[in-house]
Design goal:
This protein is mainly α. It folds into 3 domains: 159 residues, no CATH class; 220 residues, no CATH class; 44 residues. The chain contains 18 helices and no strands. It is elongated, with a radius of gyration of 46 Å.
């Protein structure tokens, strides 16, 4: 039978419509089955809580997959009609008495009658339409495919969630923990990338090193006979380096150097004595002890992950928790390093989440990442302290250079072959010692001229000036006036000395507070303290 014949086209079209009808019937039954199963699961989950469903949006998404899955299965597993099946349907519809069935089987039969059969089939096929043979119409039995999924949708909307066995609450707790762990991991990764980038940028271009190199070039430009020009250049360098010192202190160290010296009473145990020691070492620019402790914590965390014995695991967990708590307290209270304290606290929280078997592997990996971030935070702090120490050395060397400049002994030609700042400092100290002058350590404040050399200035009372002696009526304020006191008549013996000491102590206390407020480098605190100590000693000496 020719494929171009009218009979062939009719049978092919009818067979295709029969296949679509078969898919529809399969979809109908499969869809209703899946809707029933989904409704049963929904009912069980909402009323008993034994099955925990996802959030409402996810439930709707799951329900939307029901028709898609039913349609796919129907297309794959429906009964496929054959050409003889289509021919039988055409015969029944047209009353052809197996004419088209015979035509569909001609290829597998022999005989001289074939041409007559085809001719008869062609004649009857005129005006016959495939949609007339198998029409697609809506029937009453199809309505369950509408109201059954409708009932399921109403159940999703209005069926209350009960939790008689606490399964739903436990599942929500796990979900919140997962969400928190995911958020913490993202925060740790972002901060780790930022800190790593800052460390790399510091290695490529260190502002403290550049400032010291510029200072060494300035030292080499000094000319003994040009005091004014030398002083101008030294003061400019002193101002810039002092500004950089304050910037590092405020932006990177968060006032670490202004923390009170660690004392054994702060923590009170032998383990805590190590923490105090590490804090003091870090203030000196050495984070080796803390870095070793963090590395040891990472090794123990790996050991915890590999431990299966519940008792041993509990002991390791408790030990790690205590050590992390101590480090977090140290970072927060003694080091004033909030990023480090936050990273350590996050590591402790993630380690505790590892107790949940479903989250154990992911939580352990997150805790290791947080400890790695802690190491990078500590490395950055250590480098900042080293930079501050170098800048303090530079400021002291500038003070030495200023003293030599006053004596017209500052000659850059003598130091042009020096390599390090320590070479300049040692050379200037030797020159000052040869001149019979011992420079006070850290003399002068960052960017300023200091408190002077302590010598009395010569005065000439014979010179007439426009000075008019007047007494201020303002109240006595610490830090403003030191020796102005109101007296009535002759003071009793010792009264003046007692009042003087009280005022001196008040002014000294104000100066100590000002040092912290103005962020003066610690290397300069000693000269300020010695100034007030000298006043106290001078007053205590018996009057001649």
């Amino acid at each position: 039978m020719s494929e171009a014949s009218l009979t062939s086209r009719l049978l092919t079209q009818v067979m295709q419509r029969m296949r679509l009808a078969a898919v529809g019937r399969c979809f109908y039954s499969t869809f209703l089955l899946f809707c029933g199963l989904f409704g049963a699961v929904l009912l069980t989950a909402r009323l008993s809580g034994l099955i925990v469903l996802p959030a409402a949006s996810s439930t709707w998404l799951a329900f939307a997959t029901v028709p898609a899955v039913a349609g796919l299965l129907s297309w794959l597993f429906h009964r496929r009609p054959t050409l003889p099946d289509a021919a039988r349907l055409v015969d029944r519809s047209t009353g052809a008495k197996d004419l088209y069935l015979t035509v569909s089987l001609l290829d597998s039969s022999a005989g001289a009658y074939q041409a007559l059969v085809v001719k008869s089939a062609e004649a009857r096929a005129v005006g016959v339409k495939a949609n007339g043979i198998l029409p697609f119409t809506w029937r009453r039995q199809f309505w369950p495919a509408v109201w059954v999924p409708g009932l399921v949708a109403l159940g999703i909307l209005f069926l209350p969630q009960l939790d008689p066995f606490g399964q739903v609450a436990a599942a929500k707790l796990i979900e919140r923990r997962n969400d928190r762990l995911t958020e913490q991991k993202k925060t740790t990764e972002l901060r780790l990338e930022e800190v790593q980038r800052q460390i790399e940028e510091h290695e490529e271009s260190n502002e403290a090193d550049l400032a010291i190199e510029e200072l060494k070039l300035t030292f080499n430009k000094m000319k003994a006979a040009k005091k004014a020009e030398n002083l101008k250049m030294l003061s400019s360098e002193q101002k810039d380096i002092g500004k950089l010192w304050r910037q590092i202190s405020s932006e990177k160290l968060k006032d670490l150097m202004k923390s009170a010296p660690p004392s054994d009473q702060q923590f009170g145990a032998s383990q805590d004595e190590k923490l105090n020691k590490w804090a003091k070492e870090l203030q000196e620019g050495d984070a080796g002890g803390l870095q070793s402790e963090l590395q040891n914590l990472k090794e123990q965390l790996q050991q915890l992950a590999a431990t299966k014995d519940p008792l041993k695991r509990s002991e390791l967990m408790q030990n790690l928790k205590e050590r992390l708590q101590n480090l977090e307290k140290l970072a927060h209270e003694k080091l004033n390093n909030e990023p480090l304290a936050t990273a350590l606290e996050r590591a402790m929280q993630q380690m505790e989440l590892s107790e949940d078997k479903e989250m154990q592997q992911e939580a352990m990996e997150a805790a290791m990442k947080s400890l790695e971030l802690s190491e990078r935070e500590l490395e950055q702090t250590e480098q900042a302290v080293k930079d501050m120490k170098e800048l303090e050395d530079a400021l002291r060397t500038i003070q030495q250079a200023k003293k030599l400049n006053e004596q017209e002994k500052l000659d850059g030609g003598q130091s042009e072959n020096f390599k390090t700042l320590a070479d300049y400092e040692a050379f200037y100290a030797q020159m000052l010692a040869d001149a019979g002058e011992e420079p006070a350590e850290g003399e002068g404040e960052a960017g300023g001229q200091g408190f002077g050399d302590g010598q009395e200035m010569a005065e000439d009372d014979s010179v007439e000036t426009g000075f008019k002696s007047e007494q201020s009526k303002s109240a006595l304020v610490a830090g403003k006036m030191l020796l102005s006191m109101q007296t009535k008549g002759e003071a009793e013996k010792g009264e003046v000395v007692r009042d003087y000491k009280q005022l001196l102590q008040s002014v000294k206390q104000g100066a100590m507070e000002a040092m912290n407020t103005e962020q003066i480098p610690p290397g300069y605190h000693e000269s300020i303290k010695s100034y007030f100590d000298s006043l106290e000693k001078n007053k205590e000496q018996p009057a001649k």
